[in-house]
């Protein structure tokens, strides 16, 4: 599989949301992957403020690139290509990374490649595994919840997606209702530990033989639960019940979609892929159903530039590259 990736060294940059990240990637080898998170900054507002995110990227982007080069023990002049997330994401945030990438590619006289953020998440799984093709990827992040049929690396087809909130959003919004800090996914997982997941029955969204998801009903139900229970709400049991409502529907539908297209393998990627309950549930279900499960390594689940370097190297190996008028797109379908 390695011959399908550009040899590099490729400098990769990711600034689509609230993480400033830079990495050096040769083929599928990640030489360095530096992530500077803005979580502390956005904590005060309980969510991401796009203007503040863009300004924080301006401050962090060059020091983070410098650190990635130092970590990989290479000089800037050794960089053979620059890969950058240009879609989808917050326009101001994306612009910072794309401007830095263009400037460096111009100065170094190397190819520039714009990468789709979700292709990065998808490929985070192949960093250290040869995943059989075709397979299905359950891609679950703060902005996306998708079941993707990966026919080949670079050839994707959407099997199902959320009709409203993303899974990460469902975690974050429910966490906020429980008084947990932003982003709520990890805090919810910690609070749920040892809690009784059957204590509070919560809706599972769409019923029947569907591949899509809906999490907006869950958020409403959690709001009602918090209001009706008041001080008697057991937060640990509530967190466990919410986590169970999200995890069960994700795992069950992912396995069903793999069976639907006759895929023998399933992959799990995106920020919510860091959730221990989801990883365990999918592992159990896949074992029972004879499907091989490949999960993104923990450090590549949440946003990072290494996955952008992997996707960039795949594209560059196919002789794809972009011009210096490369645009930033807030919304874009998976290539
Ligand atoms: O992929 P990501 O870093 O950013 C986007 O592209 O959206 O995903 C961030 C999302 C947030 O909603 C966060 O709460 C969620 O991933 N997340 C988790 C966990 N760690 C991060 N959700 C559940 N359990 C976790 N352990
Ligand atoms: Zn992401």
Quickly list its features.
globular, alpha/beta, binds 5'-O-[(R)-(carboxyoxy)(hydroxy)phosphoryl]adenosine, 10 helices, 335 residues, binds zinc ion
Tell me what you see in this structure.
This protein is of the alpha/beta class and 335 residues long. The protein has helices at residues 39-43, 50-72, 91-108, 117-123, 167-177, 184-192, 216-229, 235-261, 276-289, 306-317, and strands at residues 10-14, 19-26, 29-37, 81-87, 112-116, 135-140, 145-152, 155-161, 265-269, 292-295. β2 (19-26) and β3 (29-37) form a beta hairpin. The model has no long low-confidence stretch (mean pLDDT 96). The structure holds 5'-O-[(R)-(carboxyoxy)(hydroxy)phosphoryl]adenosine (KG4) and zinc ion.
């Amino acid at each position: 599989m390695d011959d399908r990736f550009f040899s590099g060294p490729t400098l990769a940059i990711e600034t689509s949301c609230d993480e400033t990240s830079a990495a050096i990637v040769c083929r599928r080898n990640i030489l360095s992957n530096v992530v500077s998170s803005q979580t502390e900054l956005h904590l005060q507002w309980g969510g991401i403020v796009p203007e503040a995110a863009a300004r924080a990227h301006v401050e962090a982007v060059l020091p983070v690139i410098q650190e990635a080069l130092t970590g990989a023990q290479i000089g800037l002049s050794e960089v053979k290509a620059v890969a950058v997330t240009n879609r989808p994401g917050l326009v101001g945030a994306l612009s910072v990374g794309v401007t830095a990438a263009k400037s460096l590619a111009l100065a170094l006289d190397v190819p520039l490649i714009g990468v789709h953020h979700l292709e990065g998440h998808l490929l985070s799984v192949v960093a250290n595994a040869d995943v059989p093709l075709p397979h299905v990827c359950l891609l679950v992040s703060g902005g996306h919840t998708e079941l993707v049929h990966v026919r080949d690396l670079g050839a994707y087809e959407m099997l199902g997606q959320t009709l409203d909130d993303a899974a990460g959003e469902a975690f974050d919004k429910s966490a906020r209702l429980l008084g947990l800090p932003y982003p709520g996914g990890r805090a919810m997982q910690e609070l749920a530990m040892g809690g009784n997941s059957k204590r509070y029955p919560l809706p599972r969204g769409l019923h029947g033989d569907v591949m899509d998801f809906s999490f907006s009903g869950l958020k409403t139900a959690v709001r009602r639960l918090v209001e009706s229970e008041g001080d008697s709400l057991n937060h640990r049991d509530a967190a466990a019940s919410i986590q169970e409502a999200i995890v069960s529907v994700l795992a069950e539908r992912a396995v069903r979609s793999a069976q639907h297209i006759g895929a023998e393998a399933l992959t799990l990627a995106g920020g919510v892929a860091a959730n221990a309950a989801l990883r365990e549930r999918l592992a159990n279900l896949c074992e029972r159903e004879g499907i091989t499960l490949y999960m993104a390594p923990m450090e590549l689940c949440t946003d990072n530039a290494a996955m952008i370097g992997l996707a960039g190297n795949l594209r560059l190996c196919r002789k794809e590259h972009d011009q210096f008028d490369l645009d930033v797109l807030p919304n874009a379908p998976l290539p």
